[in-house]
Amino acid sequence: MRASRAVVVVGVLLALATMPWWARDQYQLHLAALIGVYWILIAGLNLVVGYSGQLSIGHVGLLAIGAYGFAILTGRYEWGPWWALAASGGLGSLCGLLLGLPSLRLPGFYFAMATLAFALIVTEISLAQGDLTGGGTGLPVPGFTAPFDSPGGFHALVLIVAVLITWLTWNVARFMWGRALIAVRDSVVTAQAVGVPVFRAKLLVFVLSGLTAGVAGALFASLQSYITPDTFVFELGLFFFVCIIIGGRGTIVGPLIGTAVLTALPEIVAPLARWSTFFYGLLLLAVVLLVPEGIGHMVEIVRARLRPRSLASFAVAPDAERLARCLRSEPRR
Amino acid sequence: MLTALVTGIAAGALYAAAALVYNVMFSTSKVLSVTTGHLAMLGGVFGAWLTAGLGWPLPVALLGAVAIGAAFGIATEWIAIRRVLSRSDEHLWLLSTLALATMLQQGVALWWGTEPKPFPRLIPQDFSAGLADQKYWLPVAIALLLALGLEVFYRRTLYGKLFVAMSEDAFAARARGIPTDLIRSLSFALAGAMGALAGFAAGQLTFAYFALGLTLTLNGFVALAVGGLGSNLGALVGGLLLGVIGAFATYYLGGEYQQTIAVGVLMLVLLLKPAGLFGSASIRPV
Asked: Looking at domain B2-119+139-272, does it have CATH number 1.10.3470?
């Protein structure tokens, strides 16, 4: 099982790494890089939503901050793209900290509303601070230096970062922190009782998700090469959220597949593009009502159904003699 | 200055109405529905469509818009609440109502268009009325009417008392023979009708605009959280407070920081008084 899984992972990675040589056109490369960028954000968000159960629907705000940070640092202050990338990650985690400090203390719906408000605030500020962000007209974003300036090179860069981030979140998820987060998700009181520092655990992964969102924002800006406030609409944040819920909470593979499928679907099936947000809503509703554990869970159910069952059979017969003895004997006093 | 105050009170009344709608749904189901603001959006959009598009007379169009709001309220309860409440996971209703709200907003956007469209005059009045214009006092009147009506409904009618009983303890109410599922559906229908009515009355202020729903969901929730969850008086005060503060912020700082101010107010109140101004402190279940 373990070996076959490793083979699959290595195979997929090889296929992705060699994609510049077998992809049919530039557009497919672009799409793959876009999925990778989204995944960098969603991998971090998955720890927040999927593992610790904090329903953040406004991560698009952090993405926007990373993107604008990168665009302003490279464009206006002429930093090198690598420094700007690192600074975007730092900026994202700082904003995650500032957002998480007050809002992670709030209960479920309050927290979701706080993150929604955060996303709207970021849009508002990016429109208001016109001389810094270009206002409604937006900003052009320079690309990376060679060898990452071509579509193939950029794809490789995204792939490397995505693999690193995935490895990072996988490490968080499977060791002590991940267990603590799952405990927080399933029962806060129990988690507290067994000594999990609830607020600190939540804040830590939230800051980590801010870091990945900032890095994803920088790569996203570089990939799109031009950003406006309209790029970072609330629906995009909802999309990230839906990817995780559909893929299944508490796994890494599920949201990864969810991201890939949901990003590619409206691009491949053109008539869907107009209806894509409606479609995400419908999908979210269907998953919540039918399989709240996510589609990944459905595969497990089907597999369990199909597996031939071997139930041990026991013959149950009354022990007549002992029964009779019990009935005959006097009740003890 | 006076203009800022009047517009603030008018917008605040709409927030207060949204907070009242939250309260009605919350009382019977303990669910804070994301669709709350979208109910008012339905009232505005369908009000404009029925009057301007189909040419229905005003009272009939008003009834039609309210009926559509109520129908959507019932649909919300059937689709997104009933099945989910029977499960133990407390966050699922947030996801299901969010999904429904998204679908509604996108559906309206695709059908109605993404531009705000004008809403017809409800009462014959000259446009030169200035601050006495109906678009400012109609939302206030409706919000007050809704709050008073709810108070009478809760205190004087049998069904109102059933609502109160369910908000106190749904299990005990069920044990006493109250059809809790039916009452919950009714509360969602009432909430839908109220939301659509508020959206209809405020149509001239907000225009018939598909994206009104999400901002109103947020601002209504801020009003509710500031005033205190479950308190109708708190909803009114919180809504007016938020509207006036937002309007003065616009007056002094410019219109770009509306949401920032709203959330700043929310965070300040939640830090100082977590239960809100008029809310009762909740007991933490252990």
From this structure: yes
Q: Is residue A6 part of a domain?
A: no
| Partners of residue B117 on adjacent β-strands | B208
Percent of chain A clearing pLDDT 90 (strictly above): 35
**Which of B30, B91, B242, B269 to mutate: most A Cβ within 10 Å?**
B91
Tell me the C-alpha distance between B197 and B62, whole Å: 8
Per DSSP, the three-state class of B55 is coil
The reply to whether A117 touches chain B by the CB within 8 Å rule is yes
Paired tokens of A55: 């329903």
Chain B residues with at least one Cβ partner in A under 8 Å: 32, 79-80, 83-84, 87, 89-92, 94-96, 98-103, 106-107, 110, 214-215, 218, 221-222, 225, 254, 256-260, 262-263, 266-267, 270-271, 285-286
Per the structure, the complete domain to which residue A121 belongs is given by: 12-328
Tens of pLDDT, residues B15-59: 999 999 999 999 888 889 999 999 999 999 999 999 988 888 888
Distance separating alpha carbons of residues B188 and B74, to the nearest angstrom? 6
For residue B158, the distance in angstroms to the closest alpha carbon of chain A comes to 31
Selection from B278, B201, B250 nearest residue B40 by Cα: B201
Closest CA to A45 of A35, A33, A54, A37: A54
Asked if the structure places residue A174 within a domain, the reply is yes
Contact B99 A281 (CB under 8 A): yes
Report if residue A233 sits inside a domain. Answer: yes
For the question of an ipTM over 0.90, the answer is no
> Taking CB atoms and an 8 Å limit, are B103 and A124 in contact across chains?
no
C-alpha–C-alpha distance, residues B182 and B167, integer Å: 14
Phi-psi region of A18 (alpha: psi -120 to 50; beta: other; left: phi over 0): alpha
Helix (H, G, I), strand (E, B) or coil at B31: coil
- pLDDT higher than threshold 80 for residue A329: no
Cα four-point dihedral sign A218, A222, A223, A224: positive
Q: Is A7 part of a structural domain of the chain?
A: no
Burial A69-91 (b: 16+ CB within 10 A, else e): bbbbbbbeeebebeebbbbbbbb
Cβ-defined contact of A118 to B225 (cutoff 8 Å): no
